[in-house]
Amino acid sequence: MHKKSEQEAYWRLTAKLPDHPPLSESRETDVVVVGGGIAGITTAYLLCQKGVRVTVVEASEIVSGTTGHTTAKITAQHGAIYDELLHHFGLEGARSFYEKNQQAIDWIRNTVSQKQWECDFETQDAWIYADSEATIQQLEKEQHAYDKLDIPYKHASKLPFDIHCDGALIMPNQAQFHPTRYISAMVEEIVEMGGKLHEQTKAVDIQEGQEIQVTMENGHVLTCQHVVVASHFPFYDGMGLYFAKMKPERSYLMAGHWKEKDPGGMYISIDQTVRSIRFFSMDGSRGILVGGEPHSTGQGEPTDHHFDVLQKFTSTHLGKVDFTYRWSSQDYTTLDKLPYIGAISNRHPRILVATGFRKWGMTQGTMAAHLISERILGTSTPSSDLFDPSRFHADPALKKVISINSDVVKHFVKSKLEIPVITLKQLPLGAGAHVNWNGQQIGAYKDESGNVHAVDTTCTHLGCSVNWNSSEKSWDCPCHGSRFTIKGEILEGPAMKPLEVIKTDGCEG
Ligand SMILES: Cc1cc2nc3c(=O)[nH]c(=O)nc-3n(C[C@H](O)[C@H](O)[C@H](O)COP(=O)(O)OP(=O)(O)OC[C@H]3O[C@@H](n4cnc5c(N)ncnc54)[C@H](O)[C@@H]3O)c2cc1C
């Protein structure tokens, strides 16, 4: 169990997570899974069930990534997406996506029920709702797509809250759970089946010959036949150019006790600001989760602004809630909004990747685990081609690749031209910012005792300038989503090297 910190997720503070020792030797295994989130752990579980020797390596702790910071709705209703998928992937592609997600829900439901895993699993309806002229048109198109795709749904004209609603589509029989308790139960079985897990073990390189060698930061090497890169952002690119074809986006979540009657259901608006609501079992009573406020990583308003907006939304439309937990997290969206699942690139058919879940990774991470384990076991079906990371559909992919990368250029150029307005001396206690230090632009955080932690703000990935994230006290890159601690250490994203530390040695410039 983790100690409560102001910005830690409810899921991380309320589940028992056994420790697993770091890898302390080089050895052989059949499959190496890199990453202890839902995608990696489910893959390991499925392979262990088939008698494959699996070793999972996790840079930090199991479920410390996005899976431990999610909303944990388990649904095939990923916002309003099916009209768009229908246009870009046709009837067969869009239907296959829906069916694979629905199968993932059924698999989770059956597994939890058969194994009697205690993870607060609840069947719930998923709602998307429109609250404006523009979104009602989108909702109508979505309903039309549901009809074409034979997706079961109900229509509603209002919500069980005081929120303006021009119409809603309800996908029945979806679900929700406590993600950390779910993964924890799965991990226990992986260990019982002989799977090996190593925390605090960061994979840094892959060499492919007749066998594949995965090298860890501590120098130990795992030799294997297949590698599954389930590190959220792929830690190894394999010439797949993932940084140029995925966009990171952060969102905010708040959780607290819910004293009113629970109306049931999981709700999400289809406007740009996104309001996500669901109820859950919290310390023997009911809790409410309210989320939203998405923005590109490293580009949002100060963090407190987003939490203030969500708090105000809640008190205006839902009632008074004392939010005792608040956190934020990020996920990646691909060029065409379908995940990348399969060979990391055409050159590396035995290095498999699962990423780009667009904030819907409970089903897509589970679906990826099935597709990848089937591929390793040699039982794949052609439907997995839909998610092949090497696919390229000109529309909308081309437009997106240009827009993602012109955004990168904007941040790259802007960062080099701006001079910080405050000096290191003027930086208040407990604050971080770009500061002017002896005429040089640096990033500095001054702790409550006045100690300064300074870094070169040039992201070590591709040279954009990182921005201060006041909530997580981290430096976040607006270009490709790499994130660093106040000491410059890597937290997540594509960067492989820490930020350069600048020694100010008590000199405030
Ligand atoms: C705010 C928010 C709300 C969301 N809500 C929902 C929801 O309601 N429903 C839904 O379906 N999805 C939701 N999602 C999306 C979902 O949480 C993610 O898609 C999913 O958790 C990603 O799982 P993962 O296994 O790919 O990555 P992660 O859970 O991030 O796991 C990857 C792991 O790899 C480790 N790692 C990284 N690099 C290395 C390395 N080099 N070596 C070893 N280990 C490494 C990391 O430490 C991490 O633990 C939400 C996402 C966000 C941001």
Automatic annotation (TrEMBL):
Keywords: 2Fe-2S, Disulfide bond, Iron, Iron-sulfur, Metal-binding. It comes from the Bacteria. Residues 419-509 form the Rieske domain. The keyword Acyltransferase does not apply. Gene3D superfamilies: D-Amino Acid Oxidase, subunit A, domain 2, FAD/NAD(P)-binding domain, Rieske [2Fe-2S] iron-sulphur domain. This is FAD-dependent oxidoreductase. It comes from Jeotgalibacillus marinus.
